[in-house]
């Protein structure tokens, strides 16, 4: 889980660095985290109480005119590294992006 703005920025910065080190000409990372809670009532009593927390990192890497995007909800640095490398490798697999006519 991402705890605070500083940790989110550090994780995004590291993911961009890793994508660029892997060969991307441009890269960007987006970190998202949030919490949600739900309480259901039945017959004026709490029937179900649920809380969840989630975080996500998404990396977009550009190689020439090709773009690759990879995401995960595992936010450890090892996963950020994997996502950055995956995003960087995807542009080599696709076709060249062409501008509209």
In words, what does this structure look like?
With 101 residues, the protein is an alpha+beta fold. It has a single domain, classed as 2-Layer Sandwich (PmbA/TldD fold), CATH 3.30.2290. A three-stranded antiparallel β-sheet has the order 1-2-3. A hairpin with a 2-residue loop joins β2 and β3.
Helical stretch tally = 2
Structurally, the number of domains stands at 1
CATH architecture: 2-Layer Sandwich
Structural class based on helices, strands and sheet pairing = alpha+beta
Output mean pLDDT: 80
Beta strand count: 3
Q: Please tell me what the overall shape is.
A: elongated
Strand arrangement within the widest β-sheet reads 1-2-3
Note the beta-strand portion: 35-45%
SSE series: HEEEH
What is the gyration radius calculated from CA atoms? Answer: 18 Å
Please give the share of residues in helix.
25-40%
* CATH homology superfamily name: PmbA/TldD superfamily
Q: Span between N and C termini?
A: 44 Å
The CATH class designation is Alpha Beta
The stretches of 5 or more residues where confidence is low (pLDDT under 50) are: none
Largest sheet report: 3 strands, antiparallel
CATH topology term: PmbA/TldD fold
């Amino acid at each position: 889980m991402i705890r605070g703005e500083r940790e989110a920025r550090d994780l995004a910065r590291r993911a961009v660095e890793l994508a660029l080190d892997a060969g991307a000409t441009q890269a960007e990372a987006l970190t998202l985290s949030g919490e949600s809670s739900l309480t259901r009532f039945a017959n004026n009593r709490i029937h179900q109480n649920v809380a969840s927390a989630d975080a996500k990192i998404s990396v977009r890497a550009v190689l020439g005119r090709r773009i690759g995007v990879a995401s995960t909800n595992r936010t450890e640095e090892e996963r950020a590294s994997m996502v950055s490398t995956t995003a960087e490798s995807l542009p080599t697999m696709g076709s060249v992006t062409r501008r509209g006519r």
